[in-house]
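Protocol step 4 of 6.
Sequence for AcrR family transcriptional regulator (Rhizobium paknamense) entered exactly as in the expression construct, tag removed. Do not edit the line below.
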Amino acid sequence: MAMTEDATAEDTKQMRPAKRDPEGVRRDILTVAMEEFSQNGLSGARIDEIAARTRTSKRMIYYYFGDKEGLYQRVLEEAYRKVRGGESDLELSGLDPVAALDKLCRFTFDHHRRNPAFIRMVMIENIHHGRHMQLSDTIRGLNRPAIEELQSVLKRGQAQGLFRPGIDALELHWQISALSFFNVSNAASFSLIFGDVLFTPEGQEQLSRHVADMVLRYVLRQPDRHDPG
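Step 5 output, structure tokens:
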């Protein structure tokens, strides 16, 4: 029996691939590209692999991001956008200064350990001497508020007599980042030399807590030794 025109049209419609949301396609490309770049570096990453895993084409990737280095820079920007967005969600201005600094330290440590691809991307960019960061106004714009927010927490703590004076927000940010970064960047070598006790869930929770404690001990105002109280 011959097919009706309506049936033929319906079958053709079902066979036609569904149109993909362009923004969803870009998000998928960035997600997969983050894995590819963080695992293999800029030179070792393969656009063919990213295209295959996202069910798109090299031509489409280049349409969205220009070229391989353009895609790498966007991935780097998105990595920083995620961590700074997470900091913004902490709403530190609504907390007392001690709780705010403790929460920021814990967030930074926990974000880094749960996102090792971010740490690897930063390490790779340092191998390239920060070339792509220099080209990105977005990255500079994303990171500037992080120092301003920390400065605000410090000023509130100092105004309340909780934090000692003379603490530089940029330096404190460096210290928090260094403690959190090393935990991921050197995990393989450290655990091979000394064992993996610090990299168990319990060990990581303890390190996260102790990093916050160390920072607070550094920042908190010490009582006057001559004060009998």
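Step 6, annotate. The chain has a mean pLDDT of 89.
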